[in-house]
Amino acid sequence: MAFSRTTRMTNQILASWKWLLSFRKPEWALNDYPFRTVMQEADPAFSGPRFSQHRYRAYVVNAAITGSGDTPEEAMVVLAENFESVRQLRKQEEKPAIRPGANWPVEFASQEKVSSDETLSEEFVQKVLGLEWAWISDESSLWDFHTDQTNDLLFARILEIYGVDVSDIESARLWAIFERLKLAKSAESDRST
Fold it and tell me: Are 81 and 139 in the same domain?
């Protein structure tokens, strides 16, 4: 999301002010953080049957936490929910709270599970997803790679290429699909020996 120079300056002034105020107390809620609500124009390039565009977006300045809605109030409700999810996740992972106004670090999801078989991972991205390459993590799912209402086309492609039905994997997480493919390959090699 690109901001004008005026918006960037306003955001940084707001962030600085909230940062200074944050020293008055040890714990912070959403209202202690710099946040804004803006009207956004519909993007004709962004369309698909399972996506809807909202008229308003609320965001925490210097953080990748947003919420969208058809009214400013709806956008703020979604922002509050997303903010609380991030806050709870940081608590679970025993990470400290980020001070209001500070830049939030960009954190990438683990790749431990999807990288356990890099050959399979690369092959899957090219053959099933039809991409030359893609950055995938343990949080990546088939839903991230299309705009259809279902994963049926990709499930069919996986069945065609690998001969394995993965349509019962509700999350459609790539690591879970890779595990199923590896199990099937292992069972096949056991039968052939």
Answer: no
Q: How many Cβ atoms sit within 10 Å of the Cβ of residue 15?
A: 20
| pTM, rounded to two decimals | 0.73
| Cβ-proximal residues to 133 (8 Å cutoff; 6+ apart), any chain | 122, 125, 126
Count of structural domains within the chain: 2
Claim to verify: residue 88 and residue 135 sit in the same structural domain = no
The partner residues of 37 in beta bridges, in order of sequence, read 58
Q: Which domain holds residue 54?
A: 5-92
Which helix H or strand E contains 66, and what residues bound it?
A: strand 66-69
Residue 120: name the closest of 73, 170, 177, 81 by CA.
177
Per-residue pLDDT tens digits for 141-189: 999 999 888 999 999 999 999 999 999 999 999 999 999 999 998 888 7
Q: Answer yes or no: are the C-beta atoms of 106 and 90 closer than 8 Å.
A: no
Q: Is residue 9 part of a domain?
A: yes
Does 157 fall in a domain?
yes
Q: At what angle do helices 174-192 and 152-162 cross, to 10 degrees?
A: 20
* Cβ(86)–Cβ(35) below 8 Å: no
The CATH number assigned to the domain holding 38 equals 3.30.160
Task: 154-157: list long-range contacts, CB under 8 Å, 24+ apart.
Answer: 154/128, 154/129, 157/127, 157/128
CB-facing half-sphere around the CA of 39: CA atoms within 13 A: 2
